[in-house]
Batch of 2 targets.
Target 1
Amino acid sequence: MIFKRFNATSALKKTALYDLHIALGGTMVPYAGYSMPVKYAKQTHIESHLWTRKHAGLFDVSHMMQSTLKGPEAVKFLHKITPTDFSSLPAGQGTLSVLLNEQGGVVDDTLITKVNDNTFSIVTNAGCVDQDTKFLREQISDFDCEWNPVQGKSLLALQGPEAPSVLGHLIKDGVSGLQTLYFGQKRAFQLAEGVTVDVARSGYTGEDGFEISVDNARALEFAQKLLDNSAVAAIGLAARDSLRLEAGMCLYGHELTEKITPIEASLAWLVSKTRRDGSLGKFNGWDRIMDQVNNKSAPVTRVGFKYLGKGPAARHESPIFLEDGATLVGHVSSGSASPSLGGLNIGQAYVKKGVHKKGTKLLVGVRNKKFPIEVVRMPFVPTHYYK
Amino acid sequence: MLRISTRTLLRSTPRLFLRAQSSNALTKTQLPFTFSSAGPSAVKYTSQHEWIATHQDGTAFVGITKYAADALGDATYVELPEVDAELEAGDSIGSVESVKSASEVYSPLAGTVVDVNEALNESPQLINEDPMGQGWIAKLKINNPADVDGEELMTLEQYEKSLKEDH
């Protein structure tokens, strides 16, 4: 068997929690320019995945880029580069969105929170830092607003059904303080010792949970306090990916690329109804995207699928065929065995319009064999957002 | 396809542990060992982490090492070869899947597949629990029993030494 090795670890960046990862026996791998834990010694990948669904998992996601957009034309700018209505979004509320290039393709997916009418906080993907920075700097030049990466902050995700009680015990307001923080909302909370953290009720697992921005200087102590609770286990990138796959969420570079529109990605809900008549400004790729919205003309669609039998999991770029085994109708974007579904092979794929409907039976090619699959609705497991 | 750096794995495993436990040795209570009453005539290792246990009659068992199984993590599916498949040394004999990765397994020697470990279809986790015994992948009739002495294959001692040097 061939092991893929990574070298040049010396050039990798470290998050503020790097020493903690090592102390917990993290298997460190290069990821988006950082040395990040793929799993920890205490649990296998599957154990850590199931732990998060049942208890609470702590993820270091400090490699993601946190940034701020400020200025009188911040909304106008966001209305050019995203299809989302940020004028009617209440302060303190965040929303998933996508950064659109001029062709309507996705430069990155992002979580944007309105601080006030002129200020937004933005989280984007670690792996897209260079393209995002270039894109935003180019696009912003005609607008009266400033975009700047946030320095010196760590980002921790606490996910799973026990996350609210775990975090509640560490903030001054207690567990009840989180009861009015609903999915997508973000607020500052005081930790017992007077340290302030920004808490967003969001995540990438399909579970209830939080993404917490904390000063680097306080990050290690805060993470250790979370881990002191027996409900919490540190969880690595491997489970982060299998959890998001089950939740039907997109991974940039797999489900989303600069060539794919949000409509093709089955993310039409990201195009706010109030943006569709153009009165709030036409976003990048307007003609192509609105044609796909109005005329259902997207040539391909993102779907979920499951295997009907056993077999090796379909992976990124595995071909998908009609049941005749000869007519190519799509490609897999992500796939693996699903820990929550007892190892059933699942995946996400782009298939041609017409074979995208729930219940459609197709074949997926893995190496030299073809395996029967069926198009299913996503998410693959029920989500538990606090709404 | 394995996304785990062997280097980090080694660093996080205390050396004493590696030395004290011959974890990559064949399990003495399972078929790859007990197939003949005297045990295998040779057990050899590849640099790609397969093991092969050959017996006097030219039968051989193939699997992946404990080291490889640990590095892969939870096996979710094991792809087995076809019985009667004729293999050259280095041909694919199947693959071991974890949630995160798929890793090809290669035949250490030329031969014909005479049996596969069907138990892995229902219990792929045998690859993790006992990779050097119950988790054997295929049973071969090897073409030339003398091949097992070839320079390509390592003894247990050489294999474990190669793991330590793999920095």
Target 2
Amino acid sequence: MNDKNFFVLFIETMQNRWDDIFVALQEHLFLSFISIIIAILISVPLGIFISRRKKLAEPFIAVAAIFQTVPSLALFGFLIPFLGIGNITAIIALTVYALLPILRNTYTGITSVDQSSIEAGRGMGMTNMQILMKIEVPLSLPVIMAGVRTATVLTIGVATLATFVGAGGLGDIIYRGLTSNKDELVLAGALPATILALGFDLILKLLENAATPKGVKAKK
Amino acid sequence: MITFEHVSKKFADGTEALKDLNLHIEQGELLTLIGPSGCGKTTTMKMINRLIEPSGGQISIDGKPISDQDPVELRRSIGYVIQQIGLLPHMTIAENIALIPKLKKWDKSKIDKRVDEMLNLVGLEPSVFRSRYPLELSGGQQQRVGVIRALAAEPPIILMDEPFSALDPISREQLQDELVKLQKEIQKTIVFVTHDMDEAMKIADRIAIMKDGEILQLDTPDRLLRHPKNEFVRNFIGDERMAKGQAPTAVDLMIQKVATVKESRGLAEAFRLMKSERVDSLVVTGPEQEYKGVVTLDQVQKHYESDTKRIADVIEMIEPIQRNTLYPEIAKRFAEKQPISIPVVEGDKLTGLVTRSSMMRGLAGLEQLGYKEEEPLNE
């Protein structure tokens, strides 16, 4: 490998394969987004639910943690016998992977809301729903958002493995580069994936700050 | 207004928080529930807005049993102030105050007007405080907001659960004063839980002293001091006041440097002593400083002619008080028997003297005790 040529090669690859890379990028975003949204839809209500029944919290979080510990590639492998290959398999695997950070942060966020605010709310005649929507969710939103951020970065990374279940994504490009022994092609897949992860991390960090209520920031 | 009939409460763990409680709270009165921790005072209060449900008996407001009412609606008609204040940190002061009126769907202009009115009521300038957040306020200011938030929707009843006990002493005093003043204006029915006897004495129309889930005595502060029903009530009033470190007892109110005379002395000597010390009575003591009685200028002058008489012959016995005797009792002695002064003893030894003016000074500022030594003798 000639170092002097590598950069040039990489630029050329990017230009020549842009259409492929762009498609892969879209697939990658699609897989990550759908998974994260499903994970949010499952984890946030579940997190709120287990914050009401603390006895259930331990087992639910433990199960989510076990999913998380399964090596990502192995998880995709496990699912193939049941679901075959394709987008669905990839999305399920990614969703399972994203559950824990969101679930844990939702639970922590909701349970760490100052009990005196809730007692005051209940004592003044707020319904459980009003307490949830007007007190608990706004006050725990920064923590929940932090969980979503962790899950998003994780998912964008793990989504590169979706190629092994035939769901495409930037992993396709990387895999093609590896099998054809073209480092510049590997990079052409890896670099956008990295930028994507870093970019989302930044955007979600800003969102997290925006989600922190003004009155709570004043304390710091 | 609020009536408890045979109310009992057993918690799931078997503890019996309340036993057959009967209580009638009058319209417009400020009733304090007080007692040692675990006496059931908070449980009693939280039953009024159904945060705790009774195991037996019935509670009614204006004759209507509260168990028939929707808890949420019920709570919206009862103001609630808690020790931890519980303002919502993500809402502005105005939003916090507007919380219940909003839940009750008042229209916006009415709410805005009410918020300003409430802020003015506790001396917080609306233009400054409306848009602030709770955490930008001091503890005292936060609890003022806590109180007006409870008042905002004009509930006829307000429950206060040790609302001032987490505040610094100065804010606490101020808020107590403000509450007394406020209560004169708004005439709400207030149920106030506290463990602080001084606070209860200061603000309450009536005080219910509770122990082990029962009300031991329910009376006005004055009647409680004068006629404590039993030893526990007496000790509770006393202990609490002494534990606070500001309990006026005989020691706080007496002068220590007392003009004394031995009983074997003659009247002429007593007269000379009174003149030089500029007092009109002397405390008579034995050889070991034990208290024997008092000799007054009147008596000395009356018997002055007979030069055989000695102090022992004209002595008057004023029943002494112990060092830890409480102010209310001392005041009662002064009121009933009209003595010039009352000697204070420890065992049978004289340690000081309470006079009307030493008592006044002692009450006016206990910090002045440090200067006691320089005070004139016996006045």
